[in-house]
């Protein structure tokens, strides 16, 4: 334990977050994005992120990136992409607290990447990692995703989930409804998801 850790208050108030899937939620899903030139931020995302940030939410990206296991790109390339996107957001005053990704696949790839892990959604490992490192109250947090795996990951740790109809959302809306999985909302896009979160958060205070 470091000196800094010893001096941390033990009763520090837990904070809240919005967990964000990347492809189809923040940016256009181009099927295994591997170059910064392919990045296209979806309409309304930056405005929504600013509003969530201004309301006291941590912004936490949680994205499955099995393209690494498939050898379509490397972790180094992915980190460059996230750094580029992070800088774009910072130009708007948006500060993402964590960029979490899972490079694994349970049946494809070799070596360290071909593995059944605890971080690949629907497993909640990325959410739990952020919760531990950022001192989050998961029951006061939200997740915005476009796939049933996002919704299931949120359900496993009592995070309120919202499905957007961008990306794979329209296709996965049917799967979510058929599963009878608990979901906080199904909305058109990121701005509608933002509105839903902020209205509910104001009533919860």
Produce the secondary structure layout.
Blueprint: H1 3-6, E1 16-20, H2 45-54, E2 57-64, H3 75-91, E3 98-102, H4 125-134, E4 142-145, H5 148-156, E5 160-164, H6 169-179, E6 185-187, H7 190-204
Protein model, in words:
The protein is α/β, with parallel strands linked by helices and 205 residues long. The chain has one domain (20-168, 182-200): Rossmann fold (3-Layer(aba) Sandwich), CATH 3.40.50. Helix content is 37%, strand content 15%. A six-stranded parallel sheet has the order 3-2-1-4-5-6, with helices on both faces. α6 links the parallel β5 and β6 (185-187). α2 runs parallel beside α7. Mean pLDDT is 94; it is low at 1-9.
Side-by-side strand order of the widest sheet: 3-2-1-4-5-6
The CATH class assignment is Alpha Beta
Q: For this structure, what is the CATH homologous superfamily?
A: HAD superfamily/HAD-like
What oligomeric state do the depicted chains represent? single chain
Alpha plus pi helix count: 7
Number of domains: 1
CATH fold-level label: Rossmann fold
Content of β-strand: 5-15%
| Major beta-sheet overview | 6 strands, parallel
Structural class: alpha/beta
The overall pLDDT average reads 94
- In N-to-C order, the SSE pattern is HEHEHEHEHEHEH
Q: So, CATH architecture? A: 3-Layer(aba) Sandwich
Concise account of the structure shown:
The chain has helices at residues 3-6, 45-54, 75-91, 125-134, 148-156, 169-179, 190-204; strands at residues 16-20, 57-64, 98-102, 142-145, 160-164, 185-187.
